[in-house]
């Protein structure tokens, strides 16, 4: 029997994933990653749920304490990005380094042929594709996973709707029902409220500063640059403005922000580095997502010296350095790169 290691979070998707793979005839084992050093009962509660599911299915489960790696690769990067005035994407880092890095290594060490998760995405071992449930699709977050990892990945949720998984799970017995009654996990697993609450633990974010317009005129005040991301339009003052103003850039060095009217935030060219490509081509046409919840924008990409220059067919608004540009052809992810600069 082929073995599959399932990354189990204590949530419904990964719990149903384990059930489905067992029904398909795989030998299933689970692994729970302790990603943070939390002492508030968070891990204990997740592990209890996993234990119940494991008992119900009659499977083995492991606990892997990976908090040190997670802190270094994901958490510190997240905090530092805000200090540097960029907008991070911790889930993308986690998928590459932790879930399909360290957790995959763990699965292989335990002689599993595959690592399955409850992500909403598809893979054929060569590429990643959007999931059928477009409202839950997580292909964006998976696009930095190394090409070498793809043949080992399984996403049994790929063709399902989240609501159907919840309905299905609630009928599987008490251990599953309990999980469906939990609150949905938050978007970023270590952010309980808002990102600024996390950053506050590491820096004094409430240091008022000056707001400039694009011509360099002092036009107002703000609460501290770390409160803002590109495209934000609230929480700062612009004296005498009749139209809404948006954050155009953040300057950590002197704690200033530059704001402009909507049209001044429109950009046509995006530069990105640290590429992770699933194709060999260096000049191609495709569509690109410049943040998770954005539309697919038609573009032309040219890659040179591990840098991508992305020429958009139509201008985009509020594109932030630090976010990921993910390249698609139809539903297929062909690669991704981290945004460094944008130009009109
Ligand atoms: N702490 C963890 N340990 C092991 N695997 C995890 C952990 N957190 C997440 N995963 C895996 O990654 C998948 C996607 O994570 P995400 O945080 O998006 O979960 P989710 O959408 O809330 O899913 P679930 O309902 O399974 O929690 C999960 O379905 C699970 O397979």
UniProtKB/TrEMBL annotation:
ATP binds at residues 7-14, 33, 118. The record marks 119, 323 as: Interaction with tRNA. One of its GO terms (biological process) is tRNA wobble position uridine thiolation. Residues 136-138, 291-292 are annotated as: Interaction with tRNA. Its main location: cytoplasm. It catalyses: S-sulfanyl-L-cysteinyl-[protein] + uridine(34) in tRNA + AH2 + ATP = 2-thiouridine(34) in tRNA + L-cysteinyl-[protein] + A + AMP + diphosphate + H(+). PANTHER family: MITOCHONDRIAL TRNA-SPECIFIC 2-THIOURIDYLASE 1 (PTHR11933:SF5), TRNA 5-METHYLAMINOMETHYL-2-THIOURIDYLATE -METHYLTRANSFERASE (PTHR11933). This is tRNA-specific 2-thiouridylase MnmA. The gene is mnmA1.
